Amino acid sequence: MNTSRNSTLLIPNKNLADRRLLRCFSAIVALLVLIGGFLPAIAEAQMQSSTSGNPQSIRLGEAIVVPGTAEALVPVYLTSEVEIATWQMGLEYDELLLNLVDVEFTGTESELLDPILIPTLNQNSNLSGFQVVYPGPDFFPTGEGLLAAFLRFQWIGTMPIPSPSGLSIPINLIDLETLPISMTSPSGLVTIPETQSADVVIHDYPLILVEESMAPLTAEDFLVPVRAWTSDSASTFMMGLEYDELLMTQFTVTGSDADRLSNGNWDLTIQTTPGGVICTLVTATPLPPLNGETLGFLRIDRPGNQPGQPGWGPWAIGLNPDNCEIDGTPVAYLEPGSMTWISWFMRGDANLDSNLDIADAETILGACYLGIPVDCEDAADTNDDGALDVSDVVSVLQFLFSGSPSPPAPYPDAGSDPTPDLLDCE
Q1: Which residue blocks in 84-203 are alpha helix, DSSP H?
Q2: First-to-last C-alpha distance (Å) of the chain
Q3: Which residues contact 183 (CB under 8 A, 6 or more apart)?
Q4: How many secondary structure helices (H) and strands (E) does the chain include?
Q5: Pairing of the two strands 325-326 and 234-242
Q6: Which residue, 372, 366, 369, 361, is CA-closest to 394?
Q7: Phi, psi for 39 (deg, rounded to 5)
């Protein structure tokens, strides 16, 4: 059932004459590329831009202790313009409520780099900080928001957990006297990164959670999971979802764990509200106690990113306590989520449709000669020279029709821009 809100995305006008002009120009450029007579004049038309990269940073992600467990993994993300040989930080948290059990690298960018962990213990013999060393020859790569480690925390508190938001325990990044926050490059350059702390949130039964979700710009839509934890069997699940009215959405149960557990025997009703939708899922037979299984997915279409359009987020997806029930009983614990399209793109994919084809050449021509804005200038910068101009059109056409090498990274897989410039993809 379609639950799209009454909203209009602003799309640049393209009249028939503009489209014909683009197609004619594309054909002419293609012919010129094929006969090899076009390249010498390109350099003079380029507009070079100066370097402007992302700052160095160490950022913690949020983590949750879900019902029936006592541990949470706090992700550590690094952003750097140069490779990293070592990084270090101190930690501050309530040791009466949490215990830092370990620092783990499985499933991170560090995993294959043979990282060496050097812990720092406080007077209570608790882990209060650490240094990570990459012995080489390979070091932690450059990039934005790369996952470097997980901090495994154990909940040791005994206090009651407040509802519906649970108990939030801050995890702060701090300078220790013997361990200031820093990053060091293989050449020995030491930098003081920006930092971002996070919380560990403790929940109990029953819990409905909207997953924190991210997608690359090549994803034209994304399914945000809605999960549940229950201590008893149940057959009726009401979810009051709230989000910005500019988002185009659709809630679906097909393909979820609830769909599988009920053998497809379920009914979904959706009621629109001023702030979102109320989705009520009724299964033909009660589902067994749930341990994070998906009740369904909120499909969100990728918004536009031009002035007057929604942009790529993060978009908060909340849960209204008045409209969240399981078998008619209010849900005690609710965890909101969000959806973000991150600036990962495929080089040359100017129209962000996950393909590199003639339509991208037309999109770049429209940007250069008709002033039609593109959502991601970095993606349109096919030759990665830091400028958006006709040479990018030539690069697309040469790759498609002349057997020229593929565009620079990120290609063919989506990724972040490895070369800093002033082009915008935010």
Answers
A1: none
A2: 32
A3: 56, 58, 78, 80, 84, 86, 87, 190, 191, 193
A4: 6, 26
A5: antiparallel
A6: 361
A7: -70, -35
- The torsion defined by the Cα of 299, 301, 305 and 311, in degrees rounded to 10, comes to -20
What one-letter code names the amino acid at 165?
A: S
Domains of the chain in sequence order: 1-37+343-426 (no CATH), 57-202 (2.60.40.680), 207-342 (2.60.40.680)
Amino acid, single-letter form, for residue 297: F
Close Cβ partners of 342 (under 8 Å, ≥ 6 residues apart): 145, 214, 215, 216, 217, 312, 416
Task: Give the span between the Cα atoms of 57 and 78, in whole angstroms.
Answer: 6
Query: Any residues with CB less than 8 A from the CB of 252 and at least 6 apart, and which?
Result: 223, 296, 297, 299
CB atoms under 10 Å from CB of 119, counted, come to 13
Mode of pairing for the β-strands spanning 116-121 and 234-242: unpaired
Q: Other CB atoms closer than 10 Å to residue 129's CB: what's the count?
A: 23
Give the mean pLDDT per block of 10 residues along the chain (426 residues).
33 46 52 43 34 73 95 97 96 95 97 97 83 97 92 95 94 94 97 97 97 90 97 98 92 98 98 96 98 97 78 90 97 95 91 94 93 91 94 95 93 87 81
Q: pTM here?
A: 0.78
pLDDT of residue 19: 54
Compute CA distances 405 → 229, 236, 305, whole Å: 51, 56, 30
